[in-house]
Amino acid sequence: MPDRSASGPARSANSPRAGGRLLVLGAVAVALALVALAWLLWLLSSGTDREGLQTTVTVPGAFLLSRRQSSIVSVLIAIPGCLLVVGAVLLFLGVFLRRAARFGVRDRRWWQGGTVVSVMKPIGARAHLLWIAVAVVGWGCLILIPLATSGGGGWPLDLREPESTNTFIVLGLYGGLAAALAGILTVSLVKKLTYAAELRRRGDRARGGGAGKSFWRWFTFRWRFDLWFAAVGGALLGTSWMALLFHDTSFFAGALIIGAVFMAVAVVTAMQYWRAGQALGTGESFA
Predict the structure, then answer these.
(1) What is the mean pLDDT of residues 275-285?
(2) CA torsion 262→268→269→273, rounded to 10°?
């Protein structure tokens, strides 16, 4: 481990076979989420059994410790999201195990940083760009295409209520998620490229961080606030265009400006990551 305060030797989490299996399972979960999303949009657009979708059912609440009443359509809207969460977790663990990750435990107090540290080789810039393209394509399918088809009063504006409202909820929710992911990945790439550029410009001394190291370590490394800003900015920038369908130019302009500000803050702060004195691919958590 690069951190000399570790209480013991670093342990390797490298397990290509297990990682490959998790990657396959994660890809299957994501594929099922996309199929479920496409089926849901078809169901809402077909206009079949409108009353049945509004039927109230009892579903588990937080952490299965409670129950609450929800409509069937609300449950169906949540299914793709649940599958995406499962897929994301499996994909992350798969990549973690396949990319020669190492981790260790440090004896530190909570204000000094995380006690569990992992180091993983970052993906290359080309693979990073590919993932950005995937997120942008998803956003285009869920936001841009419906905007184009709705321009002349077509789908989904031509649907009757409540299917039209539910369809816009689905498109806005998952289109916003794709836009948020695109924002995160884009700012993450900026962080990666500027970090490498600073190392080339400043030499090895940049690896130790720069002015305001404590703050930037807290902001860009421990809590990744730059990526949280990117997520909010991307979601606002990506979904603001839907307001034009309802001729709400005030909401459109406001969301666009706020989203741009969030993205600008995300980019500027991500460019300061080198000041944190932490190598790319390093992460920490509390145990």
Answers:
(1) 87
(2) 150
Angle between helices 249-270 and 163-202 (to 10 degrees): 30
CA distances from 182 to 1, 30, 76, 136 (A): 31, 16, 25, 6
Question: What are 102's two structure tokens?
Answer: 């190492």
pLDDT of residue 62: 64
> Contact, 195 vs 273, CB < 8 A?
yes
What pLDDT is attached to residue 9? Answer: 44
Q: What is the largest CA-CA distance in the chain?
A: 66
- Non-local (6+) Cβ contacts of 279 within 8 A are 2, 119, 207
One DSSP character per residue, 141-209 reads: IIIIHHHHHHTTT-TTTTSPTTHHHHHHHHHHHHHHHHHHHHHHHHHHHHHHHHHHHHHHHHGGGGGG-
Contact between residue 150 and residue 164 where contact means Cβ atoms under 8 Å apart: no
| Rounded distance between C-alpha atoms, residue 146 and residue 242, angstroms | 9
144: tokens are 């841009």
Residue 100 confidence (pLDDT)? 66
Instruction: Specify the pTM.
Output: 0.88
Residue 6: the pLDDT is 43
Copy the structure tokens of residue 239: 């979904």
Contact yes or no for 123/36 (Cβ under 8 A): no
DSSP structure class, residue 211:
T
Phi, psi torsion values for 13, nearest 5 degrees = -105, 15
| Average of per-residue pLDDT values in the chain | 86
Give the burial class of 123: count Cβ atoms within 10 A of its Cβ; 0-12 exposed, 13-18 middle, 19 or more buried. middle
CA dist., res. 228 & res. 180, Å (int): 9
